[in-house]
Amino acid sequence: MSTLQNIVIIGGGLAGAKTAEALREKGYDGAVTLIAAEDHLPYERPPMSKDYLVGKATFDDALVHPADWYQEHDITVRQGARATAIDTAEHRVTLDDGSQLPYDKLVLATGATARHLPIEGADAAGVFYLRTVEDADAIHGTFGEGKSLVLIGGGWIGLEVAAAARATGTNVTVLEGAKLPLQRVLGDEIAQVFADLHTSHGVDLRTEVQVAEIVTEGGRATGVRLAGGEVVPADAVVIGIGVAPVTDIAEDAGIAVDNGVLVDASLRSSDPDVFAVGDIANHQHPILGRRVRVEHWATALNQPAAAVAALLGEENTYTELPYFYSDQYDLGSEYIGNAIPGSYERVIVRGDLAAREFVAFWVDHERRIQAAMSVNVWDVIDQIKPLIAAGTSVDPDKLADPGVPYAEL
After folding, report:
1. What is the CATH architecture assignment of 127-239?
2. 231-233 and 220-226: which strand pairing?
3. Which residues, listed in sequence order, are joined to residue 331 by a DSSP beta bridge?
4. Which CATH number does 330-408 carry?
5. Each residue of 48-79: pLDDT tens digit?
6. Are 6-113+243-311 and 127-239 equal in CATH topology?
7. 391 vs 406: CA distance, rounded Å
8. Closest by alpha carbon to 155, among 242, 228, 265, 264?
9. What pLDDT score does 1 carry?
10. How far is the C-alpha of 161 from the C-alpha of 142, rounded, in Å?
11. What backbone torsions phi and psi does residue 368 show, to the nearest 5 degrees?
């Protein structure tokens, strides 16, 4: 362990900070340098579309660690610095100021960037994407009674922003190309729950629509024109059509990339001295038996400890199942597993769908649970995890029966 003298982490988000933390917890006492492109200490992103966006939490609440923690643990944080190149042969990272950092091991935690919509008006004033604290501040500034916000995209970010905006009395329209918001992630039956939730809270939800352009006046957005010609008026527009992994620096260095940085079960890339964690890690999952790349908080939280263990020479793999949560109005949900379209045959519901108090299970043709989501039902995810991990068949009738304990399935 002591033979390693320099470990560099590229990425100043949750995954980067947790990597630095894991290194010290594992007893590594060499130099740790964390390169943070934003001019902030590492912070968590979920509050940016939840409590922070609504104004219920401060930015300090979102910090992974306060400034003195990094000092106490002898971790160098280069804020507002961007890595521009990796020389894997010489084991060097070049920064945007021209300086170079040597490394023995390198951890990539570069995260993701918001996908931009290539339509006219998308760069106008009053058009926003949500990724950083500055984005959240700007979007929050558009909220208020009598103001109109149009959201392009009915995914998790779009719906969470819609809920935050409605909490302040903002008029909200959501434009979604699919038949239902979250349809690809959840399937029709559960996606309908979220559609009904938002319409019941006064959101004008428009589905199966195509956006043609963002209408502007004097360089500022005033509405969104649909393919049919209708213009939906807006004081501001938020575009939430997903994110793309930031892999340019890895690809330029010759590290294998395909929908993220390709990593093995231990989160090691095609270069044995380079690891990847968080949004960018396209991970060979030992339990799911396939590659999975997950753009959620829990991945950034949990992967670093596994990567650090392997980096320091332990035999270790990352086996945590994908997990995320969402809070919208009075609906709280938790999702565990990974049910991609085509991987499941049916959705089994335990509880009351209409009352929005249920657990949904995505089950394949062999009656194995691929994923589960609890909606306003708490303390069940840890009981469901073993059922997914075991990959054994379950009785659909018992699965749907709230009277049957999970341990008996």
Report:
1. 3-Layer(bba) Sandwich (3.50)
2. antiparallel
3. 328
4. 3.30.390.30
5. 999 999 999 999 999 999 999 999 999 999 99
6. yes
7. 14
8. 242
9. 43
10. 11
11. -95, 140
Q: What are the mean pLDDT values of the chain's consecutive 10-residue runs (409 residues total)?
A: 86 98 97 98 96 95 98 98 98 98 98 96 97 97 97 97 97 98 95 98 98 98 97 98 97 98 98 98 95 95 98 96 96 95 94 97 96 97 95 95 94
* Residue with tokens 């306003």, as numbered in its chain: 376
Architecture of domain 6-113+243-311: 3-Layer(bba) Sandwich (3.50)
pLDDT tens by residue, 293-333: 999 999 999 999 999 999 999 999 999 999 999 999 999 99
C-alpha to C-alpha distances, 256 to 151, 228, 269, 276, 372, nearest whole angstrom = 35, 43, 7, 11, 32
Domain boundaries of the chain, sorted by first residue? 6-113+243-311, 127-239, 330-408
Q: Any bridge partners for residue 154, and if so which?
A: none
| Angle ∠(115,263,32) on CA atoms, nearest 5 | 90
